[in-house]
Amino acid sequence: EQDLDERGARAILKHRGPITKSRIEFLVWWRDGYKSWEKWTTVLKWQLLDKYVAQHRGLKGLTVRKTLGAV
Predict the structure, then answer these.
(1) Whole-angstrom Cα distance, residue 31 to residue 66?
(2) What is the 3-state secondary structure (H, E, C) of 7-61?
(3) For an engineered disulfide with 46, which of 1, 6, 18, 32 has Cβ 3.0 to 4.6 Å away?
(4) At a CB cut-off of 8 Å and minimum separation 6, what does 53 contact?
(5) How confident is the model at residue 57 (pLDDT cuts 50, 70, 90)?
(6) pLDDT tens digits for 32-48?
(7) How does 9-48 read in b/e, with b if 16+ C-beta sit within 10 Å?
């Protein structure tokens, strides 16, 4: 079974679906080379999500952290 911990992830590559926490999915590139679509609940606390959202401003409401730092 795939370890869904951020330590096993290399990057979030793209997203699909409606931009709501319950519907959006993110394509995660895992360190073992595997790619899979993951729900927001899987990636919500990841620093990789913060970085991805910083590059896609339309997704700003999807982060759980109060500050993203300098962008």
Answers:
(1) 28
(2) HHEEEEEEEECCCCCCCCEEEEEECCCCEEEEEHHHHCCCHHHHHHHHHCHHHHH
(3) 6
(4) 59, 60, 62, 63, 68
(5) confident
(6) 999 999 999 999 999 99
(7) beebeebeeeeeeeebbbebbbeeeeeeebebebbeebeb
